[in-house]
Fold:
Amino acid sequence: EVQLVESGGGLVKPGGSLRLSCAASGFTFSNAWMSWVRQAPGKGLEWVGRIKSKTDGGTTDYAAPVKGRFTISRDDSKNTLYLQMNSLKTEDTAVYYCTTDIRGCGGDCYSDWGQGTLVTVSS
Amino acid sequence: EIVLTQSPDFQSVTPKEKVTITCRASQSIGSSLHWYQQKPDQSPKLLIKYASQSFSGVPSRFSGSGSGTDFTLTINSLEAEDAATYYCHQSSSLPFTFGPGTKVDIK
Structure:
């Protein structure tokens, strides 16, 4: 069974930093393209970014609002995905979901999601 | 960036009724359009991939159609458990984007 478990959310002041983790199990993590999607309170889904598998280059892509501030990385030896968030703004307040396409989307859609972790940016 | 618009924003429907949700893309995206269901306080779930392919385990009353810029999610014979917000999502070009969502409420 595919499991994605996010952690690391919490309250942080504007300008601060936070690192989210996503522990994966039930599939071959090293083969998976992994993504982060966020959802501000009461709002819709927003794509944050993704990281390809190392086999496919391990490259990252980001949405414009987070580019240059957020960094996605992975540790395949620990089956863990990370989201390093720097220079946080109040508008980054959201539930952050870890997601993957491991069940047959070829990197394009999201077959499995974690439960999400809440990040609150406030003074 | 490709912008997705959905209509309607909200729909209140009686059980067994048919529901149609549309998603329009600001430019052609081929069939790179996917649909998700999100119930309150839950993570989204994939329903339809590549415009019309049902995802594993999804009830057959959910179907998708369309290509290019216009897409439709249909729920035949709505059940009470289908009360949720439905989102479309394009993966044709980066950055990937989601539609604003359509909330379906049961009368």
Q: What stands out?
A: The first strand of chain B starts at residue 4 and ends at 7.
